[in-house]
Amino acid sequence: MQQEEPKQGTEDYDQALLKLLELPGLQKKDRMKIQALLEQLTDLQAENARLRNTIRRLSAGSKPKMSTKLKEALYE
Fold first, then answer.
1. In angstroms, rounded to a whole number, what is the distance separating the alpha carbons of residues 45 and 42?
2. Is the pLDDT at 61 greater than 60, yes or no?
3. What CA–CA distance (Å, rounded) separates 10 from 62?
4. Residue range 12-33, pLDDT digits in tens
5. pTM for the whole thing?
6. Which residue stretches, if any, does this entry annotate as coiled coil (predicted)?
7. Which spans in 22-61 are helix H?
8. Most-buried pick from 11, 16, 25, 33 (CB within 10 A)?
9. Is the pLDDT of residue 63 over 60?
């Protein structure tokens, strides 16, 4: 099974965007665009993690298990 990929690249990107927000000559509309990008990035990272977990779970073959009562009823 594969290990988690390092998140250093995305953390560096996040930090770079945060540093852009601190630039003194940055206009308000540009700040708002950068903040929107940060929010979108955060949402996409969370969605990516959920999708990776789902794919990992499905590829491992874990399927919903039948309850004991249902299994016994089917075998009767």
1. 5
2. yes
3. 30
4. 877 887 888 888 888 889 889 8
5. 0.57
6. 27-61
7. 28-59
8. 33
9. yes
Task: For residue 61, give the 3-state DSSP assignment.
Answer: coil
Structure tokens at 35: 């903040």
What does DSSP assign to residue 22?
Answer: T
Q: Given a cut of 70, is residue 48 above it in pLDDT?
A: yes
Domain boundaries, the chain: 10-75
The whole-angstrom separation of Cα 76 and Cα 62 is: 26
Q: To 10 degrees, what angle do helices 28-59 and 8-21 make?
A: 170
